[in-house]
Amino acid sequence: MSDRKFLTRCLQLANYARGNTTPNPLVGAVVVHNGRIIGEGYHHRIGEPHAEVMAIRSVKDPSLLPESTVYCSLEPCSHFGKTPPCSHLLVEHGVQRVVIGCLDPNPLVAGRGKAYLEQHGVIVDTYGAPEAFEALNKVFFTNFLKKRPYIALKWARSRDGYVDHIRESAEMPAASISGPLAAINTHRLRAEYDGILISAKTLVLDRPRLNLRYFEGIAPRPIIIGSSSLKIGPKELSAFELSPLIVTKVLIPGFDCIQADPRDVANWLPKLMDYGVNSVLVEGGPTLQSSFVRANLVDEYHEYVSSDTIGHGVPAIEINPNSTLILGSGQYNKSIG
Ligand code: AOF
Ligand code: ZN
């Protein structure tokens, strides 16, 4: 029971650094002596000390460490990366017992931290339900286990299932579907992702700014899935605050481009990680989004549902509600959001 309590504290600590550690995971650690917390720490940002180091450093009386248990939300590392291995540090301080929330999927660690501790006589207990600890680092786990960015889809639809009127030019105004609360929530969501992805068609029709206006944070990098048949050029692509990354068959001078067939999502998606894009929010439109659904490349979706009807227009995508692999989200009614 108390293992669970102290590991929960590790999750709380890890969360203090949310948004600051990428591509590193969020990690928290707690040192417990005779049922009392005597040290705590978390990983603040990439390149800085790991959670275990911070927790050990915070202990006022290090002579208590050999009689203490160290709780870590993630397996202590075993490699020399930007920082030295935490498993070695724990052994050096004579720690006898370590409890971990989940194993580290990074192939440089992947069980080696646990093995190192055990080889040096440390009792390592793994928590029975690693899901919460893996979910804390859903992007990090997806990157290593699936070798591609973490993908979330977001759209707003009318009650009768349309995302917009049928429009052929930017002169026709888009249907207004979601309200101000949904906009705030969307911008909060954007701040959690490295990249924000739209089709060239959406760029031409909507000219979205793809930045953060209703929420503080770091804006994601725009990613445009190009189609040579649409007239997108340096003018349209320069309208963003951040230089976009473009997936296109035909390279566009002056811009970072991934040369690929835009329809072949599974092929170009992993290449986004070469540009530091480890998580992507796919905002539109439905043709592009359904290519992710068809290729089974959706980890999470956020659907905003208005109480209004449109009658006809561009249909929203449909997600199989029985899919257990995908995290859904609450639905927002226009009258409140
Ligand atoms: C831990 N505790 O707090 C974190 C860990 O380059 P480095 O040295 O920062 O190593 C980064 C890798 O270490 C990262 O990919 C992940 O496998 C692990 N992160 N490990 O023991 C921590 N942040
Ligand atoms: Zn470490």
What proportion of the residues form beta strands (DSSP E)? 15-25%
What's the CATH topology label of the largest domain? Dihydrofolate Reductase, subunit A
The first-level CATH class of the largest domain is given as Alpha Beta
**What count of helical segments does DSSP give?**
11
Named once each, the bound ligands are: ligand AOF, zinc ion
* Strand segment count: 14
Q: Indicate the structural class.
A: alpha/beta
The level of helicity is 25-40%
Average pLDDT level: 89
The value of Rg in angstroms is 23 Å
Strand order, biggest sheet?
A: 11-10-9-8-12-6-13
Low-confidence stretches: 331-337
Q: Could you say what the CATH architecture of the largest domain is?
A: 3-Layer(aba) Sandwich
Q: What about the largest sheet?
A: 7 strands, parallel
**Order of SSEs, N→C?**
HEEHEHEHEHHEEHEHEHEEHEHEE
